[in-house]
Amino acid sequence: EAENMAVKTPGQPLIRIRYHEYWGIFKNNLLAQDFEWRDAKEHGEEVCVIEERARCRMKQDVTPRMRVVLDGGEVGECDVDEAQWRLYRFGVRMSGGKHRIEVQLTNNPDDAYNYRYLHVDYIRISAADERR
Description:
Elements: E1 7-8, E2 11-15, E3 21-25, E4 30-37, E5 46-56, E6 65-70, E7 73-79, E8 86-94, E9 97-105, E10 118-127
Antiparallel strand pairs: 1-4, 2-3, 3-10, 4-9, 5-8, 5-10, 6-7, 6-9
């Protein structure tokens, strides 16, 4: 859950409907969490899927830009252009061991009149199903 992540640069926990919390990123800030990946195959890396459930505050001409970083390297970047919750998926190769995941808002300058808000509900990492 985004609101429970270890690193939350200035933002705000938000409650929408009863018992549904998420984190709002309002400036060029990030959410981050260290974790240990134990599902890697014995012979090294495996393909994983990183999912973020996110939305923007409201649909505007310039939408929030979300960047996903794993261990300091960019996994992917995209515009979050839906005011309704949506899953954003990125594929990555990952080995077992300790890692750090970050979700960043990259295009909202320090401006009181700029409303490119990125709301993040959760981040999930799972092994890709190789049978597909």
